[in-house]
Design a protein that fits this description.
This protein is 8% helix and 40% strand. By secondary structure, the protein is mostly beta strands. The chain has one domain: Jelly Rolls, CATH 2.60.120. Belongs to the dTDP-4-dehydrorhamnose 3,5-epimerase family.
């Protein structure tokens, strides 16, 4: 598996080895031995999105937060990692990775996650360090001009994502995690 550190502190991109033959494909998109001390998996989730759907920038605000290992099992997405950690040297910065063919990103707790589906039925799988706690799950606007994420005009957003505060509003309201 190839690993590459992203511009946002603590975030990594992973490209697993694909083993193809005349029968099809075999891949191990996550290997526990690489993450056991850093990333205990508590939940696995999957989303399927039509072309043009944008999801995020989602994060968990409370300690210990929620680390994520995200890979694309089908289709193609443009994935964003956004540093929402107050006091971080890369606060407010983001990086992006095109996920396809089981390529993955690792986000430590405190980073925001978003993506745009680039193909129909794009399937994104999440390994999470803790279970879903609705009261702790927050979002920052994908369309925040301060972040300037390259979200296509006309992207399909959920009500939650359309109504999410900007980074500055979330900071002023004390909703962001700390570094």
């Amino acid at each position: 598996m190839e690993a590459r550190e992203l511009a946002v502190g603590g975030a990594w991109a992973f490209t697993p080895d694909l083993h193809r033959d005349d029968r099809g494909l075999f891949v191990s998109p996550f290997e526990e031995r690489e993450f056991r001390p850093l990333f205990p998996v508590a939940q696995v989730s999957t989303s399927v999105s039509r072309d043009g759907v944008a999801r995020g920038v989602h994060y968990a605000r409370t300690r210990p937060g929620c680390a994520k290992y995200v890979h694309c099992a089908r289709g193609r997405v443009l994935d964003f990692v956004v540093d929402l950690r107050v006091g971080s040297p890369t606060f407010g910065q983001w990086d992006s990775v095109e996920l396809a063919d089981f390529r993955a990103v690792y986000l430590p707790a405190g980073l925001g996650h978003a993506f745009v589906a680039l193909e129909p039925d794009s399937t994104v799988c999440y390994l999470l360090s803790r279970g879903y706690e609705p009261a702790d799950e927050l979002a920052v606007s994908l369309l925040d001009p301060e972040l300037n994420l390259p979200i296509p005009a006309g992207a399909v957003l959920s009500r939650r994502d359309r109504d999410a505060p900007t980074l500055a509003e979330a900071l002023a309201d004390g909703l962001l995690p700390h570094y």
